[in-house]
């Protein structure tokens, strides 16, 4: 999610406004790959990918992309403080 002035913009809104309702394929693909990584316990073996997916879902702040090796193993932001990206 990004902020445009005072308005928070979700992936869902970006899809609607910019893609005329088409889905962001990168987000969907990221979730599918993460299912495989999680099932095999490989999240820490792919720290950049894991961090990007966690950023997409608001689990870690976007600036953690620069510290992806740390971010992939950080505790998640509590759900009450998490920015939810509703893109389905």
UniProtKB/TrEMBL annotation:
<dbReference type="InterPro" id="IPR006109">
    <property type="entry name" value="G3P_DH_NAD-dep_C"/>
</dbReference>
<protein>
    <recommendedName>
        <fullName>Glycerol-3-phosphate dehydrogenase NAD-dependent C-terminal domain-containing protein</fullName>
    </recommendedName>
</protein>
<feature type="domain" description="Glycerol-3-phosphate dehydrogenase NAD-dependent C-terminal">
    <location>
        <begin position="9"/>
        <end position="66"/>
    </location>
</feature>
<dbReference type="InterPro" id="IPR008927">
    <property type="entry name" value="6-PGluconate_DH-like_C_sf"/>
</dbReference>
<dbReference type="Pfam" id="PF07479">
    <property type="entry name" value="NAD_Gly3P_dh_C"/>
</dbReference>
<dbReference type="InterPro" id="IPR013328">
    <property type="entry name" value="6PGD_dom2"/>
</dbReference>
<keyword id="KW-0520">NAD</keyword>
């Amino acid at each position: 999610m990004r902020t445009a002035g005072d308005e928070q913009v979700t992936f869902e809104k970006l899809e609607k406004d910019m893609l005329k309702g088409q889905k962001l394929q990168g987000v969907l693909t990221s979730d599918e790959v993460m299912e495989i990584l999680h099932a095999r316990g490989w999240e820490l073996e792919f720290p950049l990918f894991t961090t990007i997916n966690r950023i997409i879902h608001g689990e870690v702040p976007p600036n953690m992309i620069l510290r992806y090796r740390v971010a992939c193993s950080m505790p998640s932001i509590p759900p009450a403080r998490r920015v939810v990206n509703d893109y389905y």
